[in-house]
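Deviation from plan, reported transparently: zinc ion complex.
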Amino acid sequence: MNKFHLLFKYLVLIVFGFFILPMAAPLMSAEKSELKYTQNINPEAKMQDEKSSAIKFEKPLRIGKVSARYGKMKSPGSDKIVMHTGIDMAAPLNTDIYVAAAGTVIFTNENFEENRGPGKEIAVQHTNGFQTRYTHLNEILVKNGQIIQAGEIIAKVGSTGRSTGPHLHFEIRLNDKTENPEDYIDFKDLKK
Ligand SMILES: [Zn+2]
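Because the crystal trials were delayed, the predicted structure below was used instead.
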């Protein structure tokens, strides 16, 4: 083997290295970052994080007045103390109701009894274990299973079910327990 052959061999190696290595490098780094990503996922830690973190809610009405707050109150027409599981906002019939946050409609009910129960009702499932409920509706504008973006109009204010006038009863539930909506949303624009 003479010097020229040896030189040629090195030249081929250098040319190969020059073209092949840059092509392989992104592949290698992609594999590396994928590995890093999967290693970072800890299912338990992720669930814990989702449970503890709140999401941003918007007021479901742009107009109206808070007429009953969340918490214990006297049952109308008796001395019984009952738990009011949401916040009531009086508003004109057919006022637009906005979803409080992006989510999926998990329940709609068009059937109701006069002067009994929640009337026409919608429940929306959000992330992090949160759910919102909208009751006494006059009209439901969404379907069960529908994905709702933040800011969408989902229903119209009504007085269906046990209601003495057009209003929205709005609930926030976290892991199936009702929460005070005022802990999540500033209703001061809707105060009397
Ligand atoms: Zn209510």
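Confidence is low (pLDDT under 50) at residues 26-43, 45-52. We consider this an acceptable substitute for the interim report.
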